[in-house]
Amino acid sequence: MKHKISASETANLLATLKKRFEENKPRHAHLKWEEVEKRLVGNTDKLWSLLQMEETGGAPDVVTFSNSAEKIFFIDCSKESPKGRRSLCYDTEALKSRKKHKPVDSAVSMAEKMKIQLLDERQYAQLQSVEQVDTKTSSWIKTPDEVRKLGGALFGDYRYGRVFTYHNGAESYYAVRAFRGMLEM
User: In whole angstroms, what is the distance from residue 155 CA to residue 98 CA?
Assistant: First the structure.
């Protein structure tokens, strides 16, 4: 399904992404904006997803990982978990299991609607090695099936000079927990 993004939304988004890219070189030290822009221009679905990331407070930027030379990843780089994605339980199954005080959505479902992926534990740690995020908040991360089958879900944050990965019931939600997404180009 094709998503729509207007010419003015595209121009504004590209300007925002370019400015953020140029102001945060350590996230992508050996990459030039022109290489990124080439992959974005005309790619309506990817631009739409990036717009969703931007509008929900993710501040997406390119983050390069040493083990992915040809791939470009846009990752939510907001200092704290994206405000427009907080107070979500982990997935649809968890949302359905809540009898009272249901959140409006789940992290997995919202990511699917945005056409992005939740960061997994390794990717979250790699992001933290580039830039410390979630120092006052936390973010749901992709949970392995064996943990999820037992009712749990994983989240991470950065405290005391290190990255922590924790567990919680998948149906739980907190005002300071969201999710960080990734869009592969």
Answer: 19
Q: Which two tokens stand for residue 57?
A: 């407070």
User: Is there a contact between 173 and 87 (Cβ–Cβ < 8 Å)?
Assistant: yes
| Residue 80 structure tokens | 């704290």
* pLDDT band at residue 150 using 50, 70 and 90 as cut-offs: very high
Structural domain spans, the chain: 7-184
Q: How many residues does the structure list for the chain?
A: 185
* Cα 157 to the center of its chain, rounded Å: 13
pLDDT in tens, 20-37: 999 999 999 889 999 999
CA atoms of 116 and 141, how far apart (whole Å):
13
Q: Which residues pair with 153 in a beta bridge?
A: 168
- Reported pTM: 0.94
